[in-house]
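Appendix B. Raw example, untouched.
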Amino acid sequence: MIPWDKLHGAMTHFPIALLLFSTACDFVSVMLRKLPFARELRSVSLCALAVAALASLGAVISGIALSKGDLWGRGDFGWHHRFVWPAFGLLVALAVWRLVVREAMSRFGLCLYLCLMLLASGLVAAAGYFGRELTTGRRGRSPESSANATRSPMESILPCCNTSAPSSGITSCFTVSISSIGSSSAGAVAPMKGALSV
């Protein structure tokens, strides 16, 4: 069985990072166009964009397999897809355009290309955000569950061990068994906190 969740999680980082890197290289090459390395930056941008487009195919295929063919969805899943599909289409179209045109871009064409690269970067970043929300589930949590999510592993095991708070003196954590003294709650356990100052 293919672990689509792990594969999709690994594959999505490449198009996101490479598209953002390509966009940054393009903008730096335009701002510093008079310097000799601006041409090399455009070449690096082209390579990064082409690899991002190829990697996005893997991310999309693994995502479709992970969602069992559900191409739209609801909630965070729906928002993820609302940003993914235009981002994917725009990324592939920009890569094809750049591979065909290369350096023979008019001033208007370059301006349009840079605007579309910014749009694609924003769409990919938004898709990545909602994808992360799907995997971590942090949106919509109650304050109590959010507080529990930030507890250390030791606090989860021993609720009275607060590792994030500074301690003054020696803190002891113990449980006391409450025997049944005229009640039916035999063997109940109640946590208690006790602090001893030295």
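End of appendix B.
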